[in-house]
Design a protein that fits this description.
By secondary structure, the chain is an alpha+beta fold. It folds into 2 domains: about 180 residues, no CATH class; about 160 residues, no CATH class. Strands 1, 2, 3, 4, 5, 6, 7, 8, 9 and 10 form a 10-stranded mixed beta sheet that branches. The longest helix is centred in the middle third of the chain and has 39 residues.
């Protein structure tokens, strides 16, 4: 309690000594906090894409350990409310190249749902019928050409820039019967930062399966966000340095207190610790005000200024922002501690007398 009272008294002294500079320091901390919050949400991919409904963050590719029949898998997927749509496929490997055939590894799927779950499409986006095929390739000029799969000829209706080639249900049954060894499913929600329920569902329903989840892209976003966060912290350090100089000037202008402390026997370490915590707590106070102001202004201002309206800050986001601001401010203040504790006991007596 005594420490808190002492701290409050010191702050009052700083304010009385130079009100303008003290107010500028607090305002600087608030503005820095607002800018930090804004850049954190708008520059970090993990924030921009946390609630993104892009297919990239909702598509799951599952390779089954053993083949299964279409109906049983279709029932398992439709009985759960996790998926918007899905496709079931069969992955084949042509070991010997043959003229006019698809050679290398490829996957052929039959589609169930209202829209084809591919990341990009060239040509028609309608589901194939008869002997039409949406070919897994990236050659736009291939649209309209013909290709053979297991001696059956297909017309390339469009290019599916996805994980598999799409064929009609009838063609699939002729080629592969009712067997499936691949599942492509799109969840209703983006599970970034939360329990990945679709992945858990697949692990429990199809033991031993291999799951390619959107977590790959989420991890890539996190990695990119680290570099963006470093850049934000660097910018914050530069601006915080300027405002910390104001605080140091205010502290130095209250040198009488330091002189008296040195006369009564206070060590440089004690004075340094006091000055350090004063600076850190003031930075914490101004940074916290900046965050509170950001929370209040987000619905009326920052939501309009954000790069997209899906950016949502959690308590952990604000906690990290505050921790980073305080840590950076603490490091900056450490560089000025020597200036604030340079008066020796002898010099203090001489100055005071």
């Amino acid at each position: 309690m005594k420490v808190i009272i002492l701290f409050i008294n010191r702050i009052k002294q700083y304010y009385k000594k130079n009100r303008l500079l003290f107010v500028l320091f607090i305002l600087g901390g608030i503005i820095n906090g607002l800018v930090f919050c804004y850049l954190y949400g708008n520059l970090l991919p993990m924030m921009q894409n946390r609630d993104s409904q892009a297919l990239l963050y909702r598509k799951y590719t599952v390779s089954l350990e053993e083949e299964s029949d279409i109906e049983s898998i279709k029932k398992a997927l439709t009985d759960t409310a996790l998926f918007e749509c899905f496709s079931l496929g069969y992955e084949i490997i042509e070991t010997e190249p043959k003229m006019g055939y698809i050679t290398a590894m490829d996957c052929f799927t039959v589609f169930f749902g209202e829209k084809i779950p591919v990341l990009k499409m060239q040509g028609s986006i309608e589901p194939p019928i008869g002997n039409e095929i949406l070919w897994k390739n990236d050659f736009r000029e291939a649209v309209g050409n013909k290709v053979k799969v297991r001696n059956e000829e297909f017309i390339i209706k469009g290019i599916a820039g996805a994980d598999s080639s799409y064929i009609s249900a009838g063609a699939y049954e002729r080629l592969f019967g009712n067997q499936v060894n691949k599942i492509f499913a799109v969840s209703f929600e983006n599970y970034a930062g939360r329990n990945d329920l679709p992945a858990v569902f697949f692990e429990r329903t199809f033991p031993g399966c291999s799951i390619d989840a959107p977590s790959f892209y989420i991890l890539a976003d996190i990695e990119s966000s680290r570099f963006a966060l470093i850049a934000i912290c660097f910018s914050y350090t530069i601006s915080a340095l300027a405002f910390t100089l104001l605080l140091v000037y205010i502290m130095e202008s209250c040198a009488e207190e330091n002189i008296i402390s040195r006369i009564v026997g206070a060590s440089k370490i004690t004075m340094g610790v006091m000055a350090f915590w004063e600076g850190v707590l003031l930075s914490l106070f101004s940074g916290l005000l900046g965050i509170i102001l950001h929370v209040v202004l987000t619905p009326v201002l920052f939501k309009k200024l954000n790069v997209n309206d899906r950016i949502v800050y959690s308590v952990s986001d604000y906690s990290l922002i505050l921790a980073l601001m305080v840590a950076i401010s603490a490091v900056i203040i450490l560089f000025f501690i020597r200036r604030l504790t340079k008066v020796s006991p002898v010099e203090a007596k001489r100055i005071y007398s």
